[in-house]
Design brief:
- This protein is mainly α.
- It has one domain: Orthogonal Bundle (DNA polymerase, domain 1), CATH 1.10.150.
- About 75% of the residues lie in helices and about 0% in strands.
- The longest helix is centred in the C-terminal third of the chain and has 20 residues.
- It is globular and about 35 Å long.
């Protein structure tokens, strides 16, 4: 599964299965797409916990605050939970 396919299916899942608002869906997909851009060399199912940790270090180096990092991590967590049930 490619990042594009996974993100599209994730958005559909959030809208239809979880009945989330359009703004929440957009935020979660945006968060997951940040990781996708950072690790576009690997498909989503090949991402490891080390990849996510490295991504969080990257966000910290960019100067993102702890709350922003936590919100992004929440979206990424939701994305990988979705992949597990797919």
């Amino acid at each position: 599964m490619t990042w594009t396919e996974a993100l599209d299916e994730f958005a559909t899942y959030l809208r239809l299965e979880r009945s989330l608002s359009p703004n929440t869906v957009a935020a979660y997909v945006h968060d997951a797409s940040l990781l996708a851009r950072h690790r576009e060399d690997r498909p989503p199912l090949a991402i490891t916990p080390d990849d996510v940790s490295e991504f969080l270090r990257h966000l910290c180096a960019l100067g993102l605050g702890a709350r922003s990092q936590a919100r992004i991590l929440s979206g990424i967590r939701a994305f990988f939970r979705f992949l597990l049930i797919e």
